[in-house]
Design goal:
- With about 150 residues, the chain is mainly α.
- Helix content is about 90%, strand content about 0%.
- It is built from six helices and no strands.
- Helix 1 runs antiparallel to helix 4 and helix 3 packs across helix 6.
- The radius of gyration is 22 Å and the shape is elongated.
- The chain starts with a helix and ends with a helix.
């Protein structure tokens, strides 16, 4: 399972580039990542750059939402377990219900951990954001100078 931000980078640049970027982060070659991303994006139209920025912001929002909602998911799991264990129901119902709720909670827990502690992905996304902003700023400046 990849983080939401890792999936975004893989979608935009491919799995191979993502692997290269993570290796470059380990050797502290962030400028190489920026240059590569910049080269890939510089030929895109302003509309495509705006769409890429929108996808980036949506992915960041989803990542933050996963972290924020985990508290409520945990509380829901605790309440569910208490209800299942305190109500006098048949063991044929309780055991499968506990197992199903635990599996769902384990999935959400892994999703939370992957998205909360994805430092590499966050650093790559920040570099991507800087490249996007730089290109969008250049486009705006070019449009302003052509109007004058």
């Amino acid at each position: 399972m990849k983080s939401v931000l890792g999936k975004l980078i893989q979608q935009e640049f491919g799995r191979d580039r993502y692997t290269i970027y993570t290796q470059k982060l380990d050797t502290r070659e962030s400028m190489d990542i920026f240059c590569d991303i910049y080269e890939k994006l510089k030929d895109k139209s302003p509309d495509n750059l705006n769409q890429a920025l929108k996808q980036l912001l949506d992915s960041v929002q989803i990542s933050v939402r996963i972290s924020k909602n985990f508290v409520y998911i945990s509380l829901g799991y605790i309440v569910t377990m208490l209800a299942l264990l305190l109500l006098n129901m048949s063991l044929l119902i309780v055991y499968p219900a506990v197992a199903l709720a635990s599996i769902c909670y384990a999935y959400k827990f892994v999703e939370f951990i992957k998205n909360r502690y994805c430092d590499r992905d966050v650093r790559i996304v920040l570099i991507y954001k800087i490249a996007l902003f730089h290109l969008l700023e250049e486009t705006c400046l070019q449009n302003e100078s052509s109007e004058v």
